[in-house]
Design a protein that fits this description.
The structure is a homodimer of 528-residue chains. Helix content of chain A is 29%, strand content 23%. Chain A has 528 residues and is α/β, with parallel strands linked by helices. In chain A, the strands form five sheets. Chain A has a nine-stranded mixed sheet, sandwiched between helices. In chain A, strand 18 and strand 19 form a beta hairpin. In chain A, helix 1 packs antiparallel against helix 2, helix 1 runs parallel beside helix 8 and helix 9 crosses helix 10. The relative contact order of chain A is 0.08.
């Protein structure tokens, strides 16, 4: 016996239609590639989205066809999000920071029919064109795009279809092997958007002015283009202007209350703010994810600027939101140090996601904040397989293995201690490379540090620190090792420190330990 | 082409399972019928819910069977919510304030197999038993219930099934004709719970301590037993103790931050607070719905007690949440009077609900805050028909007609000006009975007032005020009519005032204009 409720599929077109009707006058503001400010309303956006949907039909884009973007956060990218998915086609956001060969691989693997690109990437597109066999139309997001819309009317009824229809395709950055595609459905995107907007997740409402620093070309900017539209938040898109000065100006001129991004961008902004003795007039909350947020950054935002930090964790394979670090009612009276320690963890599960840690034999480990194991997740916005079945069946007993190693405390807060492949296995026990890195970074003379396991005749692996000094600062190997004393168990003590001028990074700006391990593959501790 | 996301139906059992794992130590506190305080955690609740699910099997309750409750807000009622729906059966909450004949009709119509009842209703149950033909087990929520659980283990895996399966049955209070049943599904209940928890709806999170005054026996207490569990809010159940003193004590002893209920209850609480010069230590927000919240109540909470009021509107047929009165970003700087005027409206659509107003010919009317017409709604938690098809197809062009008459302003805020059947049609134009009532109530000598249309030879209908004076206060017919001057268009001026000692109310405490119109059916203005 079924309930007797209206049969209404959860479709992405429902978001922009709702915003048009119920948040008609709320603005979407974009700083363009050229540097000017573009400003319109959800109602005006929806009219242009419908024109674009008509243009896509004229270009021959049908249900399930992939339409790619190489674009910054901006109003035209926003329009493509809605026109493509609303039409039943699949929006494939490509990360322009990937190597050209990776982009070509991805676009061919996805069989993209149309590519929309910001003019920033015109040269890249010219170079790639000969390799992109499936693409019939390359459209620059300038007058060319405007001419496309000018030909169309805004007369359009959004089609209705199964909510399990594919809507968005996003490839992992792929530190090993070829990138693999996560294919989100309308259903998963919509349930994820509801969950993203919850008070304990990103806390989105029509009272907020949101500037997504996190790019729309990667995991849908953590759902913000969807969840802000859902809740009628004013959106502010920074385009490519992610330096401290540009961001601060936009925060102030548009009254931004909330923003979200990776630690690297915030570092640039905080430095700019301090150098110029600036304040935030309206900014209240920042969400920090993508990689672990250093405790010093949490303190800088909260203590120096009065901006509350929310630490979040997720991944491409989970749309991406998994956990956020909001408090529970009975944690309201924690002391400052305890609050900060809790905030430095990656947080607790958003409703819809379940998670667990398992040992090497797949047995669930206790939530005691000490045991650490492989983190597994499941939920309606977690993938069950990759696009075209690449990599086979990724699930283990119905759970998706994240590749992260974590502890979970009794309140459900996870702390990522390592990547499964980066954890250092010393004498049958695990040592967290990330814990050791955080200590090194806390040293005043250290700008960046990586800890990797190197082969050891007796212990299998032992940790070494590879570190970059801050300009004009100095520290010796022995001084840095002494800095670890009292902060870790003795057997976690790194066996060596190597100072370098630069550490290798991936296309998305993450530390590339894979490259680093290759660089140090012949390093022998016993030779020292 | 489908997305490649995990196939995970939206089931109510997922809520309690999540709370068990991720909010294990968060409390559910209940004031029992006997007056003691019961206290346990989500984890302990889930163990008992599983025992109850095993007990239901033993009682012969199968998929789709209806299990009724006649119960206050309390932990056992909470357990029944989850055990019944989690098992694939249907929880049928009966409003004990209905007349005994109506309850008998409803229970027979629903074909309830089991009835759980609070001991408060033992006499009522004894009286009803001979009429309830389908019921096999009557179980009192005292030791009898405990013995049922004692026989079972908490070993249980929740079954998985289609999310469109019926989960909850709630009958309308039925001012005309027999009550009709709204049959919610797991899907509708879950999407509604996500929407209910959003910052612009009830703003629920693990940081809140929530006391639902609104009864679990009527439209699922506005989703709170679901959406609080979803978000890990601490819950505080008041049982039958809804007087000002009991509520205030419970607010204070449990650190309640948010509550929700109908105006009548708040009136009692506010009077008690004022008489005893009390304050709220932790309460920050109250949600007021069920009937229009008088502006004076909004001011009393906000100005006298520092508690923010959220006005909400909905109905049984929509699970029930439709609109809430939260502000938009650009309304943040409104002056106090403008803010209060906006708060006195019923609010704007929760994401998932669309709404419109139409004229007598079904044509959509403009959102100008002036035009008023019949309010229609649609969305995944709005019914498409009543249980067993009673009353035929209620929809008009795919929209559900709410029976309310509203204006909608350009920002999407609705203001209920009347019930469709209560609106006074004078010379082809509509006069809002509610607007006229609000003015009468604002007079210092008036305790309660109803405005109804009475037959008029020239204008078809004209409004008259039927009013109850406050004890010890006096006002004459002409004084009250003068009080209207300057507040309304001249042709809205009531033609008469009749003072009575008491106004008729429905079983759920609402003013019964139907009864009032019957009382005044022979009243003739031309005879005056």
């Amino acid at each position: 016996m079924h309930g007797l409720m209206m049969d209404q599929p959860l479709l992405i077109s429902g978001l922009i239609r709702h915003a048009d009707r119920h948040h008609a006058q709320t603005e979407i503001v974009s700083k363009t590639v050229e540097g000017s400010v573009h400003r319109y309303t959800y109602r005006q956006a929806h009219a242009r989205v419908r024109r674009l949907a008509n243009a896509l039909k004229r270009l021959g884009v049908g249900m399930h066809d992939r339409v790619a973007t190489l674009a910054w956060n901006g109003f035209r990218h926003f329009e493509i999000y809605y026109a493509v998915a609303g039409s039943g086609a699949v929006i494939h956001t490509i990360n322009p920071r990937l190597f050209a060969d990776q982009i070509a691989y991805i676009a061919n693997h996805a069989e993209d029919k149309v590519v929309f690109y910001d003019t920033t990437f015109a040269a890249l597109i010219e170079k790639l064109k000969p390799q992109l066999n499936s693409v019939r139309h390359f459209i620059a997001l300038n007058d060319e795009y405007e001419r496309l819309l000018d030909k169309e009317t805004d007369q359009l009824e959004w089609p209705s279809f199964d909510e399990n229809t594919a809507a968005c395709l996003c490839y992992t950055s792929g530190t090993t092997g070829n990138p693999k595609g996560a294919l989100y459905s309308h259903r998963s995107t919509m349930i994820h958007a509801y969950a993203a907007a919850l008070p304990d997740t990103l806390n989105l409402s029509a009272r907020e002015v949101v500037l997504p620093v996190v790019p729309m070309f990667h995991v849908n900017a953590w759902s913000l283009p969807y969840s802000c539209t859902m809740t009628g938040a004013k959106m502010v898109f920074p385009g490519p202007h992610l330096d401290g000065k540009s961001l601060h100006q936009l925060f102030e001129s548009e009254g931004v209350t909330m923003s979200a991004g990776v630690p690297t961008v915030w570092l640039g902004l905080l430095n700019y703010m301090k150098e110029n003795r600036l304040r935030f007039s309206t900014l209240k909350n920042v969400v920090i994810g993508g990689s672990a947020c250093p405790p010093a950054m949490i303190r800088a935002f909260q203590d120096d600027f009065g901006v509350q930090v929310l630490h979040a964790w997720g991944m491409t394979e989970m749309s991406p939101l998994g956990t956020t670090g909001t408090f529970k009612a009975r944690q309201a009276n924690l002391q400052k140090a305890e609050r900060e320690a809790l905030q430095a963890k990656q947080g607790r599960a958003v409703f819809g996601v379940d998670l667990r840690i398992v040992d090497e034999n797949g047995r669930e480990l206790p939530w005691d904040g000490k045991a650490f194991g492989d983190l597994q997740v499941r939920g309606p916005w977690v993938i069950k397989s990759y696009f075209k079945g690449e990599g086979g069946d990724p699930l283990k007993d119905g759970w998706f293995p994240t590749g992260d190693v974590c502890t979970i405390d009794p309140e459900g807060y996870i702390q990522v201690t390592d990547r499964s492949k980066d954890v250092i296995k010393s004498g049958g026990e695990w040592i967290s490379s990330i814990d050791l890195e955080n200590i090194a970074i806390a040293h005043p003379a250290i700008a960046e540090a990586a800890v990797i396991g190197v082969r050891h005749p007796k212990w299998d692996e032992r940790p070494i620190v590879v570190a970059v000094k801050k300009p004009g600062q100095d520290v010796t190997r022995d001084e840095l090792l002494r800095f670890y004393e009292g902060k870790i168990a003795k057997w976690w003590m790194p066996d060596d420190v190597v100072f370098v001028n630069e550490l290798p990074h991936t296309a998305t700006g993450k530390l590339s330990k894979l490259t680093l391990r290759q660089q140090f593959k012949d390093y022998r501790l016993d030779q020292k």
